[in-house]
Amino acid sequence: MSEFDFSPPRGMRDFYPEDMTLRNAIFSIWRSVARSHCFQEYDSCVVEKLDLLKRKAGEEIVEQIYYFSDKSGRELALRPEMTPTLARMISARHNILKFPLKWFCIAQCFRYERMSRGRKREHYQWNLDIVGEPSITAEAELLTTASEALLALGLTKTEFIINVNSRKLLGEMMEKGGIAQQLWERLFLAIDKRGKIPEETLLAMLAEAGLTSAQIDYVFKILQINSLDEAGSIVGESSAGLKELRYLLELMNANGLGDVIKFDISVVRGLSYYTGIVFECFDSQRKFRAIFGGGRYDNLFSTMANRSLPAAGLGFGDVVITEILTEKGYKPPSDNIETIVIGYYSEEQTMLVIKLANAFRKRGKSVNLSLHSEKPSAFFSRAGSSGAQYATFVGPDEMKTGTLRIKNLATRTEEVHQISEFLE
Amino acid sequence: MSEFDFSPPRGMRDFYPEDMTLRNAIFSIWRSVARSHCFQEYDSCVVEKLDLLKRKAGEEIVEQIYYFSDKSGRELALRPEMTPTLARMISARHNILKFPLKWFCIAQCFRYERMSRGRKREHYQWNLDIVGEPSITAEAELLTTASEALLALGLTKTEFIINVNSRKLLGEMMEKGGIAQQLWERLFLAIDKRGKIPEETLLAMLAEAGLTSAQIDYVFKILQINSLDEAGSIVGESSAGLKELRYLLELMNANGLGDVIKFDISVVRGLSYYTGIVFECFDSQRKFRAIFGGGRYDNLFSTMANRSLPAAGLGFGDVVITEILTEKGYKPPSDNIETIVIGYYSEEQTMLVIKLANAFRKRGKSVNLSLHSEKPSAFFSRAGSSGAQYATFVGPDEMKTGTLRIKNLATRTEEVHQISEFLE
What we know:
CATH superfamily of the largest domain in chain A: Bira Bifunctional Protein, Domain 2
Largest sheet of chain A: 8 strands, mixed
Oligomer: homodimer
Shape of chain A: elongated
Strand order of the largest sheet of chain A: 2-7-8-13-12-11-9-10
Radius of gyration of chain A: 28 Å
CATH architecture of the largest domain in chain A: 2-Layer Sandwich
Number of domains of chain A: 2
Helix content of chain A: 25-40%
């Protein structure tokens, strides 16, 4: 009687069965690749304490949080990212857990923002985190795992590129330029905006952050750097940030992934908690937004739980990769279960076909049992377009003779069986 | 530096890796059983339009909805159940979809309520729905699928019972008792409260609903009925509701599940949209809350989308079944992937072990590669308690001789291989 808009809430997605097939294919590869690297799966509720999120996120994210109060006045929120929750869960059990630990999850996350291509207000994010390991082997493990997922999804090594940088290196450069450490955080967040906002706005942000115009010139000069050798000429080859980056490239090389990783001075990431190596992966043609991103956050646990735990992590959303796979014409693998469609002529056969359906299921088949009786012509036309491998129809003749003709819908051949074969 | 409470928001759950193993085992059985019955998976966002939920839910549920406004003033909510969303998604495509359709999802749902055993403020619910089918074969298919999931989870047929009733039958009885149809909805919701609230409160609710005291006596008499024959003596054997129940029992019998289903006049369900058969499944000892529940809702699509689509569905939450399985000492199957732990003595072996790790992964193993060098004793003690099947350690000797000793951690035997076997 009422007119109603049947679309989902703005920025949020419905998954019809055909969408689910693709989503399940992506999730399944995420899970299996993570497990093959011995990451353990965890999860938490999509609703998180607002206070926790406010403490850990960058300014920008706080503005974008969906939040509300429950009936006892607790401030709750839909998590915009998983890292604060991971840190909460690990802090809660830091005396019991064994470090280093490798955890993953596939978590729905929410951000209230203007919508553009590759962004919704919700997405699922595959999170990989390694906690308790100071070595760059952690970053290499993260990047290898994520790269293997892209390869398993059918991308080639020429179709994606991981841009990598180091906040530690950037910090060392800022030090050389006489820029005080307390300015770095705002500086990094401003640099992260480069290319996304007009150059004048960026300049204004840097000035507002407290940089002199000479310092701003220096920052822009730094951002022209193209290679680790150039970076070395500024900070010296003994720079810790530089060494870490060189080591990471070497590790990725050993992994056969040297050609997908590239130093890029402009990568800083928009979250304030990163402390060392940071990275972003894009499609090679840069047609889409970042496929995944992350980095090292060695101070998060000490600010949160007063406990020093080095950590590195990565977030890989489902939206951009879905767009890339769709453009490539990716066909998700179908569930390999063989399916038989069973139809029947009248209610007299109902009990028999139910028993047959059970018998086929016990033999490992998926069974699509008709929910009502119908004519054979209607049944076989429906069965033919169902995608199933087999079909069989039970009518008065079959009941009389005790035989069952099982049609192979692909080869259009049929086998005759005794019904009694299938019933105990 | 700050003291922070690391628990999740009240009523919501964290899933540590050991919890995830059990959750994944349940979800995996839900999915595979649904697929073996040819239900197709769908999903939607946990955030739904408040308006949609208000229209479709019973009064009680509306009070329990978590809701909030976004920055454009849209009223949004965390869905308390999946059926309104299912109806929205199907209504949006009713011209394209082929009916009857069988869909399932595993959806997180939220209710703000006082917490008790078997209830949290969030849970995951396996939803099975059949839309476009008026026959009771739909209810039988739902109940068979859910029962098979319970059996697959290791419950025996003596450990659960499905109580079934019919609102149609109840309606016919109310008609016989002269209770006007417009009172039925409130009457059903009151009956649903029986056993959960004091008898006087129930009486007051019925009086408030507009029933005379003679009618209330009649209702209580009806609620004493114990068998379909007794019900038949009131409404007559030609009653539509009675016939449907008898047919359902017959269908379940054909499915070998006649002994898990039982007529129970007191089952009515708390949601206002049910129109026909309703059911609830419990553990046989009634120690826990309902395992699953559902029924037929033939009018939901006509009130919502002005289109007549008979439907039946079922919701099966993860909380109660988790409690039951935990009490039974259920051990979820481990992922069968064979795991090898690889360790190394110093950074000189790093590149070699990375290559070995890749090689083992390509051979289908899960590889737990140490993130830092360590002494063999520390490595093997860690490997031994890791649950992995194999372990191998690379030090200067292995590099010199080019051999690799792979230890089987269960049998404590070892095989010697050439490292070159594994590298291209």
